[in-house]
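Researcher: Batch entry, complex prediction.
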Amino acid sequence: MTTAAQRQVLDQGDIARSLTRIAHEIVERAKGADDVVLLGIPTRGAHLARRLHRKLAEITGRELPVGTLDITMYRDDLRLKPARALEHTEIPADGVDGKLVVLVDDVLFSGRTIRAALDALGDIGRPRAVQLAVLVDRGHRELPIRADYVGKNLPTSLRESVKVKLDETDGVDAVLLGETSATSEGSTTK
Amino acid sequence: MKRHLISTADLTREDALLILDTAEQMAQVSARSVKKLPTLRGRTVVNLFFEDSTRTRTSFEVAEKRLSADVVNFSAKGSSVSKGESLKDTALTLQAMGADAVVIRHSASGAPKLLADSDWLHGSVVNAGDGTHEHPTQALLDAFTMRRHLNPGVGHDLAGRRVTIVGDVLHSRVARSNVHLLHTLGAEVTLVAPPTLMPFGVETWPCQASYDLDAALTKADAVMMLRVQRERMNAAFFPTQREYTRRYGLDVRRLGLLPDHAIVMHPGPMVRGMEIESTIADSDRAVIVEQVANGVSVRMAVLYLLLGGSEPAITTTSETHANEELSK
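Model: Structure tokens for the complex:
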């Protein structure tokens, strides 16, 4: 829902350019991305991971393993909310042992989602290293976590909400900044 | 909104699918090297078994441990129950000890409901089989197994699939729970039993009933053999075991009547040679061992949905998906 109070900070072109840049950075830092595994955090992180996967295929000429990692069962706020339906976890067939795992999410906020993702990953295998790619870093970290690849740093106040919309789920590509309502949801809770 | 799982008749189609879909994710955990989730850390689940059961109790225990719950096993034998303690006093004791959920099996139909409706316990109550009434998690694992073979995929139901349930329907809580759940999921159920083992009032159930096994097999997508529960029989329900096997046992000839894709199920424990021929139980048409594995996934799903959040995700009336909306 786009209300009058919401302001668009990234459009379709901006998101595409950010992802292209992140893909190049991954190849550069991983020196060819030979052992890279992309894991998206549902829902929108999973879509972004698939987009990054396509861009990396164009750059490297190879299909990198891509999957999704549901972190619901590892959240530290499970008891604070009604039980929620699980998302799909799909780990590439070769697993993550000894690989460079790049976690992909839409918004980096408190860092608690990423903490949960690191716990979930630890139960699945032992990657060589874990890196984090996010479309938007809005600040306000509650844990010592930072992203390796950031589409856009977006300084926000806690009264503001950041909403990422992607074509796959919302029919449009956009990042919106708005006022937090009483029932904040989605990206703002991360 | 309820926080208990007492009967499959209480489950809406959405709830049933939510449990099956959640179980599908839980099944992945069972395939990993670290088969453990931190989800129920710090929660205490009591397995309160007034009736012998190894399979169901172990299955619940494995599910609870995989979700990191603290597990207390309480069996009536060797406990204060054998000294004459009532269900109420047992429940009050568990409440005082801080049980977050009680998984109860009882020989009396209705005992779990009594516990759920009382104010003796504040936690969730999960029915693990009560008398000849219901065994909801068994029905859920059966439906999960059928969906995997007959209509795989998250969000899929069993619409149009035909299930034949054969044997001691009268004493079977598994059959009762399955009839309600499979009906909710859109399957057509046919119960086949000797007239003496067909429950009174079966015509009011949402299923068909027949005495002729051969006719029911030819169109079945799944056939579920039930154990003849001699321990519950207080009269002669059929002349001899041989007679029963000849008319209602699953043998090689009858297996040939089934469509090629049909699966053979049994809730266990099996009496080999009586309701099912041993070679069939061991054949690749039988999914009996798979049912046991699926039982853990389904019970993990139920425990997570009842206990994982501040309030259960399972609704029992259609009033509510506000809960799901909130969680998005």
